[in-house]
Amino acid sequence: MRLCFASNNTHKLDEIRPLLPPDTELLSLAAIGCHEELPETQDTLVGNARQKALYVWEHYGVPCFADDTGLEVRALNGEPGVYSARYAGPQRLAADNVAKLLQELQGHADRSAQFRTVVALVLPDGTVHEFAGAVEGTITEAVSGNGGFGYDPIFRPKEGDGRTFAEMTTTEKNQISHRARAVAGLVQFLNEANF
Ligand code: IMP
Q: Is the CATH number 3.30.565.10 carried by domain 2-193?
């Protein structure tokens, strides 16, 4: 099946590609001729994932899926959550987001957090299917590691061995990550539906 992944984030594409069945042809937005920024104006992860996937389906007629992810920090009442990308401002700079989060958490004993991902899939008949995944962990006191992207250098998953996501290989991150768990639901659905 030809499926577009509605994201310009090459890190996400690299994570997702090995998780899909080998007979799935994964198309980037560039590959289908989509070069504009996708609308992402909802105030929930599921709303944004659906909005991005449906935009591609409606404008390009290609079956596709999109993901939306939020980092929910307990001591900050679930922030930055759905606003994770723009936490430190509209430039969406990862280093600034990370710096702001470390600053906001100063003095908090509870540094627990979770990443949550929602994947929305639009099929050729226009129906939308959603899949969720989450991983619990803690926010470190300082950045550590050069891999991954976004908040990875300050997220230490509970199920790991003490390393941050940025200190893991893509394969290691994929064993426990929020996105891999959501994509596992998508893959199961595609297999069962015989796509
Ligand atoms: P979005 O899903 O691309 O909207 O991501 C929201 C924010 O979370 C962005 O700042 C991303 O960099 C960050 N983010 C998304 N997924 C991950 C991840 O797997 N690790 C670390 N940060 C992530």
A: no
